[in-house]
């Protein structure tokens, strides 16, 4: 519409000047009348342009309103189990023990089981690594931990309590998630870190950044924590965005932390910074780490090797290497492919 007005106004003015000029030459109109008419027309075109732009904005707003109403009309998440979710544990009393008890899961309308009879214990403060080929069920398992879905059969418990019995807002306050594709807002670094806890002070934000090794690059920026990073953090590198996401997770101080490919597709230096930060970030939290780069999970307390929705191997890195099974084969193949970096 703006382009149309940019073309219409000069064209209309030229047409009026031509027609008015011919009328003045013919003696049917005086020069003063022509000037006065053109002045009034010019004054009128401004409000007409505003009116046209307003109509365009109104149409855009109505489309946004329609999408908003559709969202508000969506069925409440887990509405069918909301009545039983009456437990609201306080974060300070939650230990963080996670247990899967013969858990199976299939998506609605599908006959294929994405998870099939998965059972394991993750005591409080342990790091559980999930490895396997794409489609093995790693992300689905972590989604059950986050209660994005409920099991089709079996149950997932937190400190012995079925997740379906815990009020969803209370449970989500215990949870932190850092994904491969980090979502950042077009604001300052301080605002993006504080999104996890808006009431946090500058000292707490700076501490979270130090723990996540984000201060390494923040201190080099001219505006520091007041630096605007652009939509989705476009002004930062992949490693810098990942460290901001980790700082956000540190500030939230979750009891349960899920890292979904948090170090994949990063350069060597960025991975080194993030690996250095993970040791402190994961300390004292029950964590689930999905990793294709096996060098990042050597220190995990429990490694679950998944295949076709089942746990086919479990143990520590040393135990699985000694068994010479699937995990050991994956490590050898990745070492041969990536060189020393994969086994570092």
Q: TL;DR?
A:
With 344 residues, the chain is of the alpha/beta class. It contains eleven helices and ten strands.
What are its keywords?
43% helix, disordered C terminus, 11 helices, Rossmann fold, 344 residues, alpha/beta, 3 domains, 4-stranded antiparallel sheet, 6-stranded mixed sheet
Number of helices: 11
How do the helices and strands follow one another from N- to C-terminus? HHEEEHEEHEHHHHEHEEEHH
CATH class of the largest domain: Alpha Beta
Poorly predicted regions are 340-344
Distance between the termini: 59 Å
Number of domains: 3
CATH fold type of the largest domain: Rossmann fold
**Which strand-content bin applies to the residues?**
15-25%
Number of strands: 10
Name the overall outline. Answer: elongated
Helix content: 40-55%
Question: Which sequence of strands runs across the widest sheet?
Answer: 6-7-8-3-9-10
Can you describe what's shown?
29% of the residues are buried. Helix 6 crosses helix 8 (238-252), helix 8 (238-252) runs parallel beside helix 9 (268-282) and helix 10 (317-323) packs across helix 11 (326-338). Helices cover 43% and strands 16% of the residues. The protein folds into three domains: 2-72; 89-174 and 254-343, 3-Layer(aba) Sandwich (Rossmann fold), CATH 3.40.50.300; 184-252, Rossmann fold (3-Layer(aba) Sandwich). The protein is of the alpha/beta class and 344 residues long. The protein has helices spanning 2-25, 31-72, 138-145, 168-172, 189-194, 202-211, 215-218, 238-252, 268-282, 317-323, 326-338, and strands at 98-105, 115-122, 127-131, 153-158, 161-162, 175-179, 256-260, 286-290, 302-307, 310-315.
């Amino acid at each position: 519409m703006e382009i149309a007005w940019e073309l219409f106004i000069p064209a209309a003015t030229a047409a009026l000047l031509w027609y008015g000029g011919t009328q003045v030459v013919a003696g049917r109109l005086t020069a003063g009348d022509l000037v006065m008419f053109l002045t009034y027309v010019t004054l009128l075109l401004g409000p007409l342009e505003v009116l046209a732009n307003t109509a365009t904005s109104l149409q855009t707003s109505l489309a946004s309103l329609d999408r908003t109403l559709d969202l508000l009309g969506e069925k409440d998440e887990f509405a069918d189990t909301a009545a039983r979710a009456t437990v609201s544990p306080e974060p300070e009393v939650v230990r963080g023990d996670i247990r899967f008890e013969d858990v199976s899961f299939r998506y609605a309308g599908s006959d294929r089981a994405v998870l099939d009879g998965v059972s394991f214990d993750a005591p409080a403060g342990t790091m559980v690594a999930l490895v396997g080929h794409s489609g093995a069920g790693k992300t689905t398992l972590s989604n059950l931990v986050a209660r994005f879905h409920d099991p089709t059969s079996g149950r997932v418990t937190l400190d012995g309590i079925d997740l379906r019995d815990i009020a969803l807002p209370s449970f989500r306050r215990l949870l932190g998630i850092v994904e491969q594709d980090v979502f950042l807002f077009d604001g300052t670094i301080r605002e993006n870190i504080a999104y996890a806890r808006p009431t946090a002070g500058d000292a707490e934000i700076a501490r979270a950044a130090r723990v996540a090794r984000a201060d390494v690059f923040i201190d080099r920026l001219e505006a520091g924590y007041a630096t605007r990073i652009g939509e989705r953090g476009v002004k930062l590198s992949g490693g810098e965005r990942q460290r901001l996401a980790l700082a956000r997770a540190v500030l939230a101080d979750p009891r349960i932390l899920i890292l979904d490919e948090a170090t994949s597709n990063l350069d060597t230096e960025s991975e080194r910074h993030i690996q250095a930060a993970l040791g402190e970030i994961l300390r004292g939290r029950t964590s689930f780490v999905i990793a294709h780069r096996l060098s990042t999970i050597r220190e995990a307390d429990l490694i679950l090797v998944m295949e076709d929705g089942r746990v086919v191997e479990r143990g520590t890195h040393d135990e699985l290497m000694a068994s010479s099974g699937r995990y050991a084969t994956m490590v050898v193949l990745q070492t041969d492919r990536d060189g020393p970096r994969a086994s570092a």
